[in-house]
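Work Package 4 report. The design task specified in the project plan requires that, given a folded chain encoded as structure tokens, an amino acid be chosen for each position. We show below one input record used in the internal validation round.
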């Protein structure tokens, strides 16, 4: 699948994604992945950062609130429009730009850090995206990104459930098949019925890779691997959102931090 087709899908997803995530229905992002991501990010006050594949800007804003000077790029015009609109309403001095992570419109060594939050596995060429992040980083700068976990979110997967219908394990397959933009259709699982009726399901082209492929590309590019996390919901969170119990059965996300 070509970049333009990827862009087309995300333009179509942008309105529903922005509305539903801003209503708080992306509970896996808001209560599992983002808290772990921000915790690993640590102190970025005063640093210059780039969010690659920033979507409507939720996580870019979270990082800007930690005191970083942020820029955000996304392949979708609509997402950048929604992000900019929020910036105009509640300024955090974030500079948004419509651009591809495969061709970042900044000079070499422009940033102290780059992040890509759940976006790299949606890009058609992960190697080019990682090389671009490396290029725009200052020497000793870091790149932190989260992706769907390569070992569990494989091209083929299915939950095993017990007699009560509770998830107990996951069957994964086709690990070594690298889908070139296979479209997955889904909507945030906690979206109420009246809204699932209103919006079409997202159509997401996926480009998942094996774990060794991700790690080898990082190493080949010149990054030094620094830290990993496989976040899951803690007990406090589970009391509020029992649906997140499945985050303790398999790892949905892999967060990686590496340095130039
Ligand atoms: C799963 S969403 C994540 C959005 C955001 N980072 C978040 O955490 O809410 C993936 C994002 O990657 C963007 N994307 C896909 N391919 C891209 C590319 N080549 N360059 C920049 N952004 C891209 C999509 O438009 C979408 O906004």
């Amino acid at each position: 699948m070509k970049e333009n087709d990827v862009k087309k899908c995300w333009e179509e997803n942008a309105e529903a994604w922005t509305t539903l995530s801003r209503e708080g229905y992306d509970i896996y992002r808001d209560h599992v992945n983002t808290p772990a991501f921000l915790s690993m990010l640590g102190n970025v006050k005063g640093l210059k950062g780039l969010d690659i594949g920033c979507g409507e800007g939720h996580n870019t804003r979270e990082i800007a609130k930690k005191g970083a000077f942020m820029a955000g790029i996304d392949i979708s015009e609509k997402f950048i429009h929604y992000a900019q609109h929020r910036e105009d309403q509640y300024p955090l001095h974030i500079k948004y730009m419509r651009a591809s992570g495969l061709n970042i419109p900044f000079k070499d060594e422009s940033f102290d850090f780059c992040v890509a939050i759940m976006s790299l596995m949606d890009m058609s060429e992960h190697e080019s995206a990682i090389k671009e992040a490396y290029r725009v980083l200052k020497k000793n700068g870091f790149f932190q990104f989260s992706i769907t976990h390569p070992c569990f979110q494989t091209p083929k997967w299915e939950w095993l459930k017990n007699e009560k219908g509770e998830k107990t394990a996951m069957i994964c397959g086709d690990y070594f098949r690298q889908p070139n933009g296979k479209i997955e259709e889904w909507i945030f699982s906690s979206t109420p019925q009246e809204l699932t009726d209103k919006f079409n399901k997202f159509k997401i082209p996926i480009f998942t890779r094996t774990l060794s492929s991700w790690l080898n590309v990082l190493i080949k590019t010149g990054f030094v691997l620094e830290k990993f996390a496989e976040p899951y919901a803690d007990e406090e969170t589970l009391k509020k959102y029992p649906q997140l119990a499945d985050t303790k059965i398999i790892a949905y996300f892999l967060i990686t931090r590496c340095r130039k």
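The pocket of S-adenosylmethionine is lined by residues 3, 6, 10, 53-55, 58-59, 73-76, 79, 100-102, 117-119, 122-123 (CB under 6 Å). Validation will be extended to a larger panel in the next phase.
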